[in-house]
């Protein structure tokens, strides 16, 4: 028999340090000790899940710091449902406001990349559009539909480069200066690459996502062909809007 909603709420609150809910079978001192053990186990497990979701952040700050960081985040933004893959949407904003990381403001941008990668990996499936379907299409009327995994992130720091040099086996490389724009998508092999986008390509993709016809989506003086070919090869173009 499932627990009543009030009991569930009281139990969840107890996991965050509130008094034990009434009606526990064990005597109160023993129940308090057991709850403390269970509370710690839950915090450790959720911290490990968060580290798996944000591995570059975990690498950048180290295991001990990340464990403390995860507990602080858990206290502020606990999971709202059992699907832990959906937890962490507020992690980047949390990092941006976390005083011990104030000297490393790029952390929030790296977390935005990692969260977007997770969302892209779990995005709904959609079959790519056969290139022949675009033959002879009028660019003034052609409105491409991009895969739901496609995400453009405008970042304040060179976070794409920071993310890349912190991948397993990556060689050290000098970091560029200034902000970067990230393109994140799930390709046909179910990989989720992260690419630094030129501003014109970013504007093109954003305009297509907003439903603009191809002719209007292309920035002045920009050749969209290389980016469109790359998107087609990655399976990121899945259809066209009806006229």
In short:
Residues 7-95 form the Putative DNA-binding domain. With 243 residues, the chain is mainly α.
Radius of gyration (CA) equals 23 Å
The number of helical runs is 10
- What's the average pLDDT? 88
Order of helices and strands: HHHHHHEEHEEHHHE
Shape: elongated
Uncertain ranges? none
Percentage of residues in strands: 5-15%
For the sheet with most strands, the description reads:
3 strands, antiparallel
Q: Can you list the strand order of the major beta sheet?
A: 2-3-4
State the helical fraction: 40-55%
Distance separating the two termini? 54 Å
Structural class: mainly alpha
The number of strands is 5
Number of domains: 2
Provide a descriptive summary of the structure in words.
The strands form 2 sheets. The protein has a 3-stranded antiparallel beta sheet with strand order 2-3-4, with helices on both faces. A two-stranded antiparallel ribbon has the order 1-5. It is 46% helix and 7% strand. The protein has helices at 5-15, 28-53, 55-61, 63-76, 91-96, 106-121, 159-165, 199-209, 214-217, 225-233, and strands at 144-146, 151-154, 181-184, 194-196, 237-240. The chain has 2 domains: 1-104, no CATH class; 126-243, no CATH class. α3 (55-61) packs across α4. It contains 10 helices and 5 strands, in the order ααααααββαββαααβ. With 243 residues, it is mainly alpha-helical. It is elongated. Residues 7-95 form the Putative DNA-binding domain. InterPro entries: DUF2063 (IPR018640), DUF2063_N_sf (IPR044922). It comes from Paracoccus hibiscisoli. This is DUF2063 domain-containing protein.
